[in-house]
Each structure stands twice: as C-alpha cells, then as structure tokens.
Amino acid sequence: MTDQPDLPLPRQQRARVSPRGLSVAATLVAIVCMLPMLAVLVAALSELTDTVSHLLDTVLARYAGNTVLLVLFVGFGTFAVGVGAAWLVTMTRFPFVRIVEVALVLPLAFPAYVLAYAYTHVLDHPGIVQSTLRHVMGYGPRDYWFPEIRSLGGAAMMLVLVLYPYVYLLARASFLQQSGTTFLAARALGSNAWSAFFRVSLPLARPAIAAGVLLAVMETIADFGTVAYFGVQTFATGIYTSWFSLADRAGAAQLALCLLTFALFLAVLERLQRGKSKYYDQARRAQDKSVLALTGLRAYLALTACLMPVVFGAVLPAAVLFWMGLGSEQNLLSARYLGFLRNSLTLAGIAAALTVLGAVAVGFHQRLRPGRMSSGIAYSARLGYAVPGGVIAVGLLVPFAAFDNALDAWMRATFDISTGLLITGSIWLLIIAYLVRFSAAALGAYEGGQSLVHANMDAASRSLGQTPIGTLRRVHVPILTPSLLTALLIVFVDVMKELPATLIMRPFNYDTLAVQAYRLASDERLDGAAVPSLVIVAMGLLPVILICRQVGRQN
C-alpha cells in the first residue's frame, strides 16, 4: 500500500475516485461564488460613459476619499492595538496576564454597528457624558467643544475596537512560534527589550501581522451599518443609496465595481503575503524566549494597556446596551420579536448548512483530484470573503432580476400569465448571497480539520472497497465533526450579524434582528435597538468562546 494519494491515478480508476456528482457540486459552488463579480462587471460596463461621468462629477471622489481614509485609520489602529497587546502578553509577565490574553478576543463578538449604537447613546450631545459635563461645569449647548462621535473618526474607532483581534491572534501566534535565540542574541549585543522587539521580533512576524491587518481592512470596506449610522459616505453606503433611494441600478453597479476592484486588490495582497510567509516548527526552537517580568508601575501600565481595548470594545458596550435595553419597551417574547428571531435563525440555519456542505464538496474534491482545476475551484470559492455584502447583493440581483423579467414577459406573451418575480426577492437568493460571502470561512475550517486525516486512511478505505462518498461519510466525517461544527457555528453567527446584503435582498416584510436593530437606530430609538443588538452579541459569543478555549490551550 502506498502513502502517496496525491499522485495522479490511472485513467480507469478516476471515475471511481472522483464521482461526477461531487465534481458537479464543487464546480457549481465555484460558479455561484464567481457569479456576483461577473454580473457586477457586465452591468457596470453596459452603461459605462454616462454613469461614470455623472459619478465623477458628483460623489465618486468623496466615496473614494472616505473609504481610503477609513482604511488607513483602521489599518494603523488595528496594527497598534493588536501587535502591542500580542507582544505584551507573549513577552512579558504582569498580574492576570493569563486572563487578559484570553479576554482580548472578546470584542470579536460585537458587530461594529452595535458598538456605534452604544457609544452614540453615551457620547452624543444628549448622552450621559456631555449632559454631566454641562451640569457640572454650567456650560450651555455651545459653550464647549466635544469630539463628534458621528464622524469618520468615530466610525474608525468602532471598527478598530472590534477588528483588532484579527491582528492580535495572528501576531500572538507568530510571536509564540519565534525562536528565542535571535531575541537573546539581540539583547546580548546591547539592545534593550524594545529595540530587540523592533529589530528582530517585529520583522519576523511581519507576514502574520500583514495578513491580520489586511483581514481587518477588508472587513472595513465591507462595513455598512457603522458608516451608514454615522453618516460617513463610503462606497458601501453609496451602493445602498443608489439602489434604493435613487433607484439608479447603473450607478449602483458602477460603485459596486469600484468597491469590488478595491476588495480584490486587497485580497491579492493578502494572498501574496500568505504565500511569502515562512512557518517554523515550534518544537524545533533552539531556545525558548525569556519573558520579562514586570513589577510595580510598569506592571500596572501593561495591565491597563491590555485591558483598555477589552473594556472599551466589550465590557462597556455590553453594560451600556444592557442598561439601554432595561429602559426600552421592546419585549423579546412578543410575537413581533419572535418573528424577527425566527427569521434570523431560519436564514442562519439554512445558510450555514448549505455553506458547509458546499465547503465539504469543494474541499473533498480538491483532496481527491489535486491539480489546477480543483485548485481553481477552491480559489474561486474563497473569493467571496473579499467581496462586500453590498457588491454581492447587486451582483445577484442584476442577473436574476433580468431573468425574472424576461420569463414574465415570455409567459405573458405566450400564455397570458404573469409569473412575477420568482427568484428576485426570495429567501433563497438571499441564502445564495450568504453562501458566496461566507464560503471561505467554512472552507478554511474544513481544511483545517482535513489536515488531521492521514492519507493512509483514504488508501485503506479504498482497499476495503469503499467509494469516495463512503470514505467521506465513514472515515472523514467522524474525524472532522469538531471542525464541521465549528464551521457551522462561524457561518451561523456571521449570517446573524450580516447587514448590507440582508437590507438590500431580504423579501418584503421579512426582517431579521440585525435589520430591526438598524431600523430602530436609524429612527434614533437607540434604547429599542439595544435589545436585538444584545441578542446578536450573545450569538456572537459562541465562536469567540471556542477561540478563547484555543488561546487558553496555547498557554
């Protein structure tokens, strides 16, 4: 029996190893993931001259400028917070460091738009902070200056608070894997701890840090709820405004193409960074790193620095939302809210199941038939993570709306029957959008678990007469159950939090908790928005708990 399953199999055995149904399913997932991007490209180029001239004369420069500024602020902020916290908990020891290094992951449970609602309630003009300031100092409404939370800077701060864990997790893992020899050599040559960090540790961790920053930046350009609530005009808000408020389908497609180009550019950067990364076996380190024990004032400064993003990114918003919810008149047990919850759970459950099944089809097909074709299919399925929800929505609505209209016109002309909109505005098209958006997350979790299935297991299963599907069902699935459950949970929670695609594509009168929170906040009913926001956060804690457990095992 050979241990080389990746070698090409004889032609007469390939049909048995790679069943046609699995190949069709994997190819279909790749096509579905590519469809929104191709549709946006075709729709944008169909009316190029007039629409581009209008956008250039009006909003394009403002959208581009705000988007770039937001990306720069969030990129720098997540780098500073994430890398700084990762270095402190990895290379120093101070009180409660073991608890702090796990707690630093908690802000991942919060969507940025939920933080926006909480901080607006606290920091806006009628909020408790400015009200107390006016009362204590005796100021009038125009007698003092206070930073405006509803601004581009405020939006950047919200995004930094919830996205820095991407950088923190990757930077911490990289610091843990580094050999202590090089760091000690730098110290022996006269460098202090900070100089050794900047000259040795930081350059070695650069690929991981760059990947984390780029992930945070891609989430930034995809964000809609935060920038829309704060009135910051970006490409994401422009797509929604063009599609709904102005009914300008061509303009929405053009803006979607601009955002898609930016997103794919960042995706290529992330891919190049990952391709250049070098990983070393932690067990082969020549010498473990010596950590610096902090005492006195320095210990408390380090503890304060690490606790600040946790407090402002998780503890304080949760407390504010809970207090707001107590003062609201929203009843989670009312028939209306149970309907929102049912809609959210239905969409999240179906989307998670279909997305994981698609990821299994793509990943298992790539394992059975390694090569350019299967690699291309897997890469196409991963592209959705770089495409914002608004772009996916436009990319799916344009072709399917054209299909529905053409079918309705043909049925009217042939049978005098109106079919209406069969696909557009349906729950299934929205679920397809979720599949495109989150296939990469499911595929990553599946492939992480698949690496634990040794190639000999496949060979032994085939020698015992099992078909590929039988091998998947009887060998792979039992081993991969934890990874599959993790993938289900990640996609489920991501769908619960997703806002732009849901706002644009949801069926009429089919609102979710995220939509309800956004609607109440847009009407300045922040107390009411706190209730669905708390439910979304509670759901988001589930995958964060899994991540925290993994972080704890690495201690």
Overview of the structural elements:
This protein has 555 residues and is mainly α. It folds into two domains: 19-52 and 334-522, MetI-like fold (Orthogonal Bundle), CATH 1.10.3720; 59-327, MetI-like (MetI-like fold), CATH 1.10.3720. The protein has helices at residues 11-17, 20-46, 48-57, 60-91, 97-103, 112-123, 128-137, 152-177, 180-188, 193-204, 206-222, 225-229, 235-245, 249-276, 296-327, 335-368, 372-382, 389-415, 427-450, 455-463, 468-497, 500-505, 513-522, 526-553; strands at 92-93, 292-293. A two-stranded parallel ribbon has the order 1-2. The longest helix is centred in the middle third of the chain and has 34 residues, at 335-368.
Order of helices and strands: HHHHEHHHHHHHHHHEHHHHHHHHHH
Main sheet makeup? 2 strands, parallel
The portion of residues forming beta strands comes to under 5%
Computed Rg: 25 Å
CATH topology of the largest domain: MetI-like fold
The helix/strand class is: mainly alpha
Strand order of the largest sheet: 1-2
The dominant shape is globular
Indicate how many domains the architecture comprises. Answer: 2
Mean pLDDT: 80
Number of strands: 2
CATH architectural designation of the largest domain: Orthogonal Bundle
Can you give me a brief rundown of this structure?
The chain is mostly helical and 555 residues long. 76% of the residues lie in helices and 1% in strands.
